[in-house]
Amino acid sequence: MYSMISIGTNPPAPPAHKPPVDEATLLHKQLLHGPFWHRIPAYRDITDEQFLDHRWQAKHSITNAPKLLAALQGLVSKAFLEDARQGFAHAPMSVRVSPYLLSLIDWSAPEDDPLRIQFIPLASHRLPDHPNLELDSLHERADAPVPGLTHRYIDKALFLPLDTCPVYCRFCTRSYAVGVDTEEVEKVPLGVNEERWRQAFAYIASRPELEDIVVSGGDAYNLRASQITLIGEALLALPNIRRIRYATKGPAVMPQKILSDHEWLDALTRIVDRGRTLHKEVVIHTHFNHPNEITGITEDAMNRLMERGITVRNQTVLQRRVNDSAATMKLLVKRLGHVNVHPYYVYLHDLVKGVEDLRTSLDTALAIEKQVRGTTAGFNTPTFVVDAPGGGGKRDAHSFEHYDRATGISVYTSPSVHEGTQYLYFDPIQPLAAETRARWASPPARAAMIEGALAAARARAR
Q1: First-to-last CA distance in the chain?
Q2: pLDDT tens digits, 169-184
Q3: What is the pLDDT of residue 184?
Q4: CA quadruple 260, 264, 266, 269: dihedral, nearest 10
Q5: Cα–Cα distance between 196 and 107 in angstroms, integer?
Q6: How far is CA 45 from CA 9, 35, 49, 51, 59, in A?
Q7: Are 293 and 424 found together in one domain?
Q8: Is 201 in the same domain as 221?
Q9: Residue 8 has what pLDDT?
Q10: Most CB within 10 Å of its CB: which of 235, 250, 272, 411?
Q11: Does 107 fall in a domain?
């Protein structure tokens, strides 16, 4: 017989092998609660019921400088607002910021706030684009058999059913399509179009090797409940499809939707449950970049998803002055685990037009990854990756064939995607030595540096 341990028994703790830990130092458990939005004058009279309603959040999202000015009266200087107005004017990405996000920014020091940096551009911080930048740097359209469907990896495809989001991130790699036209970019239209969707489903059905579909955009948060159902049922009905990921920034920027849009959450839950009965996986992939994005409201929303058996994984973008320190990344990873979100990837920032101030070097990623590994369990430790420009796909950051820290050029290969092709990633130029910056400014010298890196990678492969 097995003996039972008395619930009322409290034996003394065994001798410690590690120094005691003060629970007050476990910062990942310390989430923001209460009506923090009252710090914003425009939201001082907003009730809990209003602020926790996704419809109120969507209706009052900030989309232009005049709205920002109205919301921030008395909080920031006129010089800051003018800087932001000019930043909006030259941004390649449309601007949309939820009241929830706006309330999390430290408006006593907005220039350095990690959330402001991600969503509200300042003209004074803008740097010249890298000379090798392309608008669609990942060449998603080059691998698209039908508009809005990228088939790059053997068994996975990326489906873009729409081109809108609950917020617009400055660093978005799809600034070529997402949002409305700006002064800098005329967008490729990928709006909701069920005929286009049917073409995508027909292609997916015709490719027996395809097993995994990412439903992104835009953002799956902006799909209506009926559209969540239509897409999910169409994909689950295909015998070859084993996995579906609904990709959304929403939990990080508007967790209220999970708590108040019952029709949308019920539709997603039905698709997840239907997948489970078919022995197929349906999950959410989301996008937290900084610990300050995770609040008590986030925890409530993630608890709601967990109660319904919905797995959530996270993909972070490494950004300068946002999360490019080991301490910040460790706290982010631990806080994600605390609210039952699995850290999956940390991406080096793609080469995106108009946001060179956000990019970090590959060396920075390698150093942070070394510090993060071992912070928590392996299944909650993200892989640091480079999404190889030109269509090479995601490569482990450590797997470069060649990396010259002096020139900032790294070379990757992707045998399972395009055998024999070399892919180049470029560190930002500004931090490089003055002599190297001068070489980048000269097209012949630039070409010589790139050819030298490719030759060095080829030599190593022999």
Answers
A1: 65
A2: 888 876 665 655 555 5
A3: 52
A4: -120
A5: 43
A6: 50, 10, 11, 10, 16
A7: no
A8: yes
A9: 62
A10: 250
A11: yes
Query: What is the enclosing helix (H) or strand (E) of 195?
Result: helix 194-206
**pLDDT of amino acid 187:** 47
Say if residues 249 and 298 touch (Cβ distance below 8 Å). no
Is the same domain home to 252 and 289? yes
**Domain span at residue 85?**
44-125
Query: Is 422 found in the same domain as 389?
Result: no
Residues 259 and 332 in one domain: yes
Query: Which tokens in the block code for residue 213?
Result: 């579909």
Beta carbons within 10 angstroms of residue 156's beta carbon? 17
Q: Which of 78, 69, 104, 97 is nearest to 294 (CA)?
A: 104
Which of these, 240, 152, 210, lies nearest to 416 by C-alpha position? 152
Q: What order do you get walking across the sheet with 409-414 strand by strand?
A: 402-404, 409-414, 418-426
CA distance 107 to 85: 16
The count of C-alpha atoms lying within 13 angstroms of the C-alpha of 235, restricted to the half-sphere facing its C-beta, is 31
* 16 inside domain: no
Residue 94: its pLDDT value, please? 74
Give a yes or no: residue 38 inside a domain: no
Task: Report the candidate in 168, 258, 178 with the shortest Cα–Cα distance to residue 221.
Answer: 258
Is 330 within the bounds of a domain? yes
The total number of structural domains that make up the chain: 3
Dist. CA 436–CA 440, nearest whole Å: 6
Q: Which two tokens stand for residue 324?
A: 């490019």
CB 312 within 8 A of CB 343: no
pLDDT at 61: 93
Q: Are 416 and 153 in contact (CB under 8 A)?
A: yes
Same domain, 393 and 404: no
Element (H, E) at 341: none
Q: Supply the pLDDT for residue 5.
A: 57
CB 148 within 8 Å of CB 196: yes
For position 35, what pLDDT does the model report? 97
Q: Which of 397, 423, 443 is the last residue of a domain?
A: 397
Q: How far apart are CA 381 and CA 373, in angstroms?
A: 6
pLDDT for the residue 182: 53
- Domain boundary (351, 376, 397) is at 397
Residue 57 near residue 98, CB atoms below 8 Å = yes
Give the Cα separation of 326 and 317 in Å (integer): 14
Based on the fold, state whether residues 321 and 187 are members of the same structural domain.
yes
The reported pLDDT for the residue numbered 175 is 64
Rounded to whole angstroms, what are the CA distances from 184 to 92, 129, 165, 201, 390? Answer: 5, 13, 19, 33, 22
Regions of the chain short of the pLDDT cut 50: 1, 187
CATH number (domain holding residue 383): 3.20.20.70
